[in-house]
């Protein structure tokens, strides 16, 4: 409720923001504040300075780059969910955004903030993984790109270094034959609240078989993570229900499944497999 | 009542314009110049010896005014408790702490941020001890919660009420005797009624302002019981009641958790007196979870014995209730409220026993329903299992075993309590009709034919509320600790001002129940005055006559009746004045349209003229005193016994265990209805909280006594997106124990709901072999129950 004392700056340019971060190694970036502020109020996090990026121009758009889509750092969950571009090229992300939190959270929280926050049970990070997203990161030393697969390091830990700002997330545009989907069980049942378990899948079909697949699981381990076992088993298969279910059985292969208040190891493993099958089937249907 | 009755009409809630425009004034909104802020140092251990408390670093911080430890407040004694069975809570504890969140020290500083920083800087050295958390473990007395007590069991409540050991044994023997009959089945199940955190939207908040030189206190607190708090503060600080004013401003929900005087309230007052400045404290969510009372927390085995054709021959309940570490206001008395409704609205013999045990967890006390939802849960769940076992329609089994309407008035429950009025069968029929019972079952069966897991559940209840009579104080339920001679009266003062407007002052402490509207309706109706001319003052001990506050669904039945009776006194005097002014006979005076009329003529006089005369003694009838006001105390002859029938339809995704509530039908009977919108609102909220217990909420403690669900991230509350639109109806069986014919409705929804939902979910999973699932029915539980049943 009462955070420790901190300094607050709200620069109007990216360079000023990066300079503020460099000058204050204990500083934290503030975007929508949906995760940062509760953590500060509970004193789980006590940054010396908060750098509010909300007034920096040019970070609030979803743009079509021809072969990819950029989602700027200030684009909200609600905007991602409503975006035709995202729905066309990354349905898994649009769905994950539409099932993130409640209306207020979706109107304030940002997609990039959800990536940077890297919660173990967050929705959109797995969609980013399944869609093969790229994180575009700025620092005073320049810009670098991090593949989603390398971005989620551990519980609440991304690959971002101090002094870096995630300025945009890019997802590749896809053509006919590729589809994606996300399915989950939320903590309060249905699709509401953080994922007890959730799976995002992206598949490409050609000539009656699955030619490419990326599947990622959230809520079950210590981070949103690729389920390579499912993808491997899918590729080359005919995408039949039987093939999908056999592949889905690999959903938690190599993942150290962790129990929490919402699910035992057995239950989470079961849900990961169930949603792997449901998400892959939906992605296949979308791929046509 | 007058012919212009506004009772029962749809009146918009007068409190809403302020609340929905953000104008509502809550305790934390009160800003007094020079206010200091308190923060508490709380134990992170459920059980530990405090070895040392070092306050030096905190005291040295800029802006810190004082740091208090146990030594500073020991002379005040422990926290008052109305039913002091068990250990009492020290105001601050530097000895052996007994639950996570127990207050060890208090810091007062210039602002809440500094206060929090300083509280974090207080260095407490603990020696952690093993904790008693599990109820069966506590009952075994293997380890004592309080080393200086002989047993963890504080009291055992039995029913029938008043039966001695021999009589109880006879009831039990009578039931046992039936069990060997060929045509009899016995169904038994252990069930958990889990602990809940009340979670009002507005957390508790208190601001104490000791006025130096005047020697008096103004205390603002988010409480349901302002008079009790005033009495307690008077007692702690040796001040007369007329020197302490407590104001409960808007109170944003209470549900019973604000029906305690808390140590923080006393400590903040203490600090204000010590420092000579106002001191404020508002709890955080985490403090609300760990340090404000919780509810429920029972484990019990219910057993039902009955014939294969639905005649129930006996119900037994045997269990343990969790009291937490310290006894506060009611604590051990809460399960006792379960005794009242232990046999429900039925006529079968009932044998009831609950052992109340202490644990190293936060205190339990009144939470919406308080003992009655638990009792109803066990009864209605086991009745459902019994119906299933004999393959009879659960509605018909209930019907067959009700106390018949013909026994009222004068019915006495098998638990030994006289009940006011009831017509359970008519209510059941109304519910079945409203739900379209047979159609509902057909719909369910059609869905099942498609492979869906759809279930229908029904449960009926009777509850007891609006407690009286006054004589209950002799049973030990006095409020003497709070300088209230009785908790069982209503009290109200109605004053007509010289301009013909009126004010009603009343000692209730509403937290969303709509008293601004309801009291204005009762007074308007009772006086024959336009509702818009009436102001309502409540929650202010300086303005209102002493009354105990708002809880136990008591306000309308008890204080509302006092309100009505005060209006009758005022109206009688007004009639005499009007008759005098109109030169008519008092018997011909009728009140309507803002004044008094002579029946059958067009001769009339407005309230403004009557009031003006009342304040000009020379124009009054010979010998009449001036003024136009009256005070009334209403002492009910009994409690009221509302009842109802609830029906739910659910669908379960058997692959995930996810439950969806499809329909919810409530048919409640609270006697006469003053404001339909308010009654429906009370039922809505009540059902939401009952569904919350059934499906979402759980105060989860680990075996070390840590509350794992102490934030709203992990303590899942029902929200609008989780609930269907409730379909509400009512039957009306007026009570005969108060002049309004009204029964309480604040808790009924909660008392009826949880078992309705669980019965529906079990029905949905019948084909999978599931017979019971403990609440909350979160997906994992449901899925696991299916796995276990299939194994
Ligand atoms: C009530 C509630 C319910 C929720 N339910 C869900 C849910 O169902 N599913 C779900 O996935 N999430 C849920 N969340 C979490 C929430 O959606 C996201 O975590 C949040 O929106 C993150 O975005 P933000 O813009 O609010 O980030 P902030 O809170 O501002 O920041 C979060 C973290 O990311 C860092 N950060 C933010 N943006 C950047 C950037 N551009 N560059 C570098 N670092 C950055 C911050 O420094 C901070 O460490 C819920 C939150 C709340 C309050």
Question: What attributes characterize this protein structure?
Answer:
heterodimer, A: 288 residues, alpha+beta, Uridine Diphospho-n-acetylenolpyruvylglucosamine Reductase, domain 2, Uridine Diphospho-n-acetylenolpyruvylglucosamine Reductase, domain 3, Enolase-like, domain 1, 3 domains, five-stranded antiparallel β-sheet, four-stranded antiparallel β-sheet, 12 helices, 34% helix, globular, B: 791 residues, Aldehyde Oxidoreductase, domain 3, Aldehyde Oxidoreductase, domain 4, seven-stranded mixed β-sheet, five-stranded mixed β-sheet, 20 helices, binds flavin-adenine dinucleotide
Description:
Helices cover 34% and strands 27% of the residues of chain A. Chain A is α+β, with helices and mostly antiparallel strands and 288 residues long. Chain A has 3 domains: 7-52, Uridine Diphospho-n-acetylenolpyruvylglucosamine Reductase, domain 2 (2-Layer Sandwich), CATH 3.30.43; 65-172, Uridine Diphospho-n-acetylenolpyruvylglucosamine Reductase, domain 3; 178-287, CO dehydrogenase flavoprotein, C-terminal domain (Enolase-like, domain 1, 2-Layer Sandwich), CATH 3.30.390.50. A 5-stranded antiparallel β-sheet of chain A has the order 4-5-10-6-7. In chain A, strands 11-12-13-14 form a 4-stranded antiparallel β-sheet, with helices on both faces. In chain A, helix 2 links the parallel strand 2 (27-30) and strand 3. Chain A starts with 6 loop residues before the first strand and ends with a helix. The mean pLDDT of chain A is 97. By secondary structure, chain B is an alpha+beta fold. Chain B folds into 3 domains: 31-129 and 201-253 and 258-291, Aldehyde Oxidoreductase, domain 3 (Alpha-Beta Complex), CATH 3.90.1170.50; 368-467 and 638-790, Aldehyde Oxidoreductase, domain 4 (2-Layer Sandwich), CATH 3.30.365.10; 489-634, Aldehyde oxidase/xanthine dehydrogenase, molybdopterin binding domain (Aldehyde Oxidoreductase, domain 4, 2-Layer Sandwich). Helices cover 29% and strands 23% of the residues of chain B. Chain B is built from 20 helices and 26 strands. In chain B, strand 18 (502-506), helix 15 (515-527) and strand 19 form a beta-alpha-beta unit. The termini of chain B are far apart. Flavin-adenine dinucleotide binds at residues 28-36, 38, 73, 100-102, 105, 109-110, 112-114, 116-117, 119, 122-123, 160, 165-166, 193-194 of chain A.
């Amino acid at each position: 409720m009462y955070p420790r004392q901190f300094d607050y700056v709200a620069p109007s340019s990216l360079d000023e923001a990066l300079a503020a971060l460099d000058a204050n190694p204990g500083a934290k970036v503030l975007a929508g504040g949906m995760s940062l502020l509760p953590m500060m109020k509970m004193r789980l996090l006590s940054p010396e300075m908060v750098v509010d990026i909300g007034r920096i121009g040019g970070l609030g758009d979803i743009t079509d780059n021809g072969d990819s889509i950029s989602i700027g750092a200030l684009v909200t969950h609600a905007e991602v969910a409503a975006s035709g571009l995202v729905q066309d090229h990354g349905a898994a992300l649009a769905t994950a955004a539409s099932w993130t939190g409640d209306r207020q959270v979706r109107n304030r929280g940002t997609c990039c903030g959800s990536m940077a926050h890297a919660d173990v049970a967050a929705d959109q990070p797995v969609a980013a993984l399944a869609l093969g997203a790229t994180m575009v990161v700025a620092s005073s030393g320049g810009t670098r790109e991090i593949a989603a697969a390398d971005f989620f390091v551990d519980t609440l830990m991304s690959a971002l270094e101090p002094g870096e700002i995630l300025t945009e997330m890019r997802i590749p545009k896809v053509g006919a034959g590729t589809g994606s989907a996300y399915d989950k069980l939320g903590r309060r049942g249905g699709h509401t609240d953080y994922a007890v378990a959730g799976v995002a899948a992206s598949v490409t079909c050609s000539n009656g078989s699955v030619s490419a697949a990326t599947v990622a699981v959230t809520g079950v381990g210590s981070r949103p993570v690729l389920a390579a076992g499912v993808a491997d088993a899918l590729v080359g298969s005919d995408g039949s229900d039987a093939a999908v279910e056999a592949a889905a059985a690999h959903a938690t292969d190599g993942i150290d499944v962790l129990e929490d208040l919402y699910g035992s190891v057995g239950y989470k493993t079961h849900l990961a497999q169930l949603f792997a099958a449901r998400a892959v089937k939906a992605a296949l249907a979308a791929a046509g | 009542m007058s012919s212009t009755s506004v009772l029962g009409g749809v009146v918009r809630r007068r409190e809403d314009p302020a609340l929905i425009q953000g104008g509502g004034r809550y305790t934390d909104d009160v800003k007094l110049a020079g206010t200091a802020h308190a923060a508490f140092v709380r134990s992170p251990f459920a059980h530990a010896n405090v070895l040392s408390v070092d306050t030096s670093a905190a005291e040295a911080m800029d802006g810190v005014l004082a740091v208090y430890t146990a030594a500073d407040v020991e002379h005040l004694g422990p926290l008052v408790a109305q039913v002091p069975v068990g250990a009492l809570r020290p105001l601050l504890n530097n000895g052996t702490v007994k639950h996570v969140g127990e207050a060890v020290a208090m810091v007062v500083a210039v602002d809440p941020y500094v206060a929090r920083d300083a509280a974090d800087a207080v260095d407490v050295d603990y020696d952690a001890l093993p904790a008693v958390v599990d109820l069966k473990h506590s009952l075994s007395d293997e380890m004592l919660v309080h080393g200086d007590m002989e047993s963890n069991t504080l009291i055992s409540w039995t029913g029938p009420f008043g039966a001695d050991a021999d009589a109880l044994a006879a009831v039990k023997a009578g039931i046992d005797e039936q069990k060997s009959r060929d045509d009899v089945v016995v169904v038994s199940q252990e069930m958990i009624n889990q602990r809940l955190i009340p979670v009002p939207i507005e957390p508790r908040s208190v601001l104490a302002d000791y006025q130096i030189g005047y020697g008096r206190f103004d205390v603002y607190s988010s409480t349901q019981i302002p008079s009790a708090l005033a009495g307690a503060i008077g007692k702690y600080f040796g001040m007369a009641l007329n020197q302490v004013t407590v104001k409960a401003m808007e109170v944003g929900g209470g549900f019973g958790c604000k029906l305690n005087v808390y140590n923080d309230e006393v400590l903040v007052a203490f600090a204000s007196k010590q420092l000579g400045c106002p001191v404020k404290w508002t709890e955080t969510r985490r403090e609300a979870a760990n340090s404000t009372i919780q509810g429920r927390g029972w484990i019990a085995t219910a057993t039902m014995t009955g014939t294969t054709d639905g005649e129930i021959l006996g119900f037994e309940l045997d269990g343990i209730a969790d009291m937490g570490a310290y006894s506060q206001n009611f604590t051990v008395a809460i399960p006792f409220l379960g005794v009242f409704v232990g046999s429900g609205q039925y006529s079968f013999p009932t044998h009831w026993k609950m052992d109340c045990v202490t644990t190293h967890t936060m205190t339990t006390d009144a939470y919406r329903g308080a003992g009655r939802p638990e009792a109803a849960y066990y009864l209605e769940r086991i009745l459902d299992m019994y119906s299933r076992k004999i393959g009879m329609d659960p509605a018909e089994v209930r019907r067959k075993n009700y106390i018949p309407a013909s026994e009222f008035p004068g019915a006495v429950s098998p638990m030994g309590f006289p009940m006011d009025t009831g017509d359970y069968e008519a209510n059941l029929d109304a519910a079945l009709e409203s739900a379209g019972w047979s159609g509902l079952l057909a719909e369910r069966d059609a869905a099942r034919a498609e492979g869906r897991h759809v279930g229908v559940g029904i449960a009926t209840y009777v509850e007891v509320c609006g407690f009286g009579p006054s004589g209950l104080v002799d049973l030990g339920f006095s409020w003497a600790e709070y300088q209230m001679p009785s908790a069982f009266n209503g009290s109200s003062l109605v004053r007509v001002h010289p301009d013909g407007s009126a004010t009603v002052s009343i000692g209730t402490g509403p937290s969303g129940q709509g008293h601004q509207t309801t009291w204005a309706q009762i007074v308007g109706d009772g006086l024959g005055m336009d509702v818009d001319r009436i102001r309502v003052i409540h929650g202010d001990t300086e303005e209102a006559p002493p009354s105990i506050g708002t809880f136990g669904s008591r306000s309308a039945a008890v204080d509302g009746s006092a309100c009505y009776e005060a209006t009758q006194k005022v109206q009688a005097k007004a009639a005499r004045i009007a008759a005098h002014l109109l030169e008519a006979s008092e018997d011909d005076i009728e009140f309507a349209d803002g004044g008094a009329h002579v029946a059958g003529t067009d001769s009339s006089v407005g309230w403004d003229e009557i009031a003006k005369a009342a304040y000009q003694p020379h124009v009054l009838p010979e010998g009449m005193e001036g003024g136009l006001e009256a005070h009334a105390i209403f002492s009910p002859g009994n409690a009221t016994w509302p009842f109802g029938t609830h029906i739910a339809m659910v669908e379960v995704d058997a692959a995930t265990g996810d439950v969806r509530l499809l329909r919810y039908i409530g048919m409640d009977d609270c006697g006469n209805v003053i404001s339909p919108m308010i009654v429906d609102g009370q039922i809505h909220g009540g059902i939401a909280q009952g569904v919350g217990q059934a499906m979402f909420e759980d105060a989860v403690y680990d075996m070390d006594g840590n509350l794992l669900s102490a934030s709203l991230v992990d303590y899942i509350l029902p929200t609008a997106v989780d609930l269907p639109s409730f379909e509400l109806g009512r039957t009306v069986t007026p009570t005969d124990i108060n002049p309004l014919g009204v029964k309480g409705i604040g808790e009924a929804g909660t008392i009826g709901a949880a078992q309705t939902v669980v019965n529906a979910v079990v029905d949905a999973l019948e084909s999978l072999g599931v017979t019971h699932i403990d609440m909350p029915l979160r997906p994992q539980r449901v899925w696991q129950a299916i796995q276990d049943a299939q194994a």
